Amino acid sequence: MSVREWVPDDPTDRRAWEGTLDALIQEHRFTIAVVFPAVGALSLIASAEWAALPDVLAFNPLFVLMGVLVMRSPLVVGMLPVVDRRAALGVAALAAYSYAIETVGITTGWPYGFFEYGVSLGPMIGGVPLALPVFFLPLVANAYLLCLLLLGDLADRALPRLLSVIALVLLMDVVLDPGAVALGFWDYGGGAFYGVPWSNYQGWVLSATVAVVVLDATFDREALAARIDTCAFALDDMVSFVLLWGGINAVYGNWLPVVVAAGIGAGLLRTDRFDAGMVPWLGDGGESDRGVAADRR
Which parts pass through the membrane (predicted)? Predict the structure, then answer.
């Protein structure tokens, strides 16, 4: 399809744009959630290990950011219909928090432990990547969404919701940080867990708690739960996460993170939606597939 064919007749109609974006993501689910992380893992490993790779390609920040943004697109489009002014303020607040806590972290070592970036992730401001929210927000948002989906009625209770999101964020960082350290993205100067200090995980308890409090206060949780229950691709960014960082950890022999990544993948499979257009030969990726997934739930 041409770009023109994707533009709604009324370019000011938000709902029309949401429907168009839904269709666009649904049509390209496999490419976004499987091909992109596979290519990303290969390119990052080549950047770290292949000395013959031209400097312009090795950890090219534009290439990295564009790939990350594409993989994030199912999450963004999945949440978009329930983002009102209050929710947008919540997202902005979490973005501001990510900058603040990262700045404190690289300056004082609290709460994650002392670390320094070894790879450029784009423009930096005060030693913090300008694109930091692109990396931080999806980590906590994906955990929040998956817990809403898997907890069922328990998701209505504040304490189980909070504890489950904290646990899942910690598990995701058990996968992410060892892989990032192995690639040289950042360096803690050593740590007991694949070069990562335990203080890092204590810091993520704080950040996950802040994220849950803000998301609870600013999003309509019932509307959000209803949206992710019917949106087949809403958690595809987590599929990308498992494939990308699980693959990188496997290459570096970080087997415990690989097992944890597989466990997160098993949790995703429990949502019973990844035959709904994820793999082209299992369905046409259209409304009929989403209906089958919804019927099974």
Answer: 30-52, 58-80, 87-110, 130-151, 163-186, 254-271
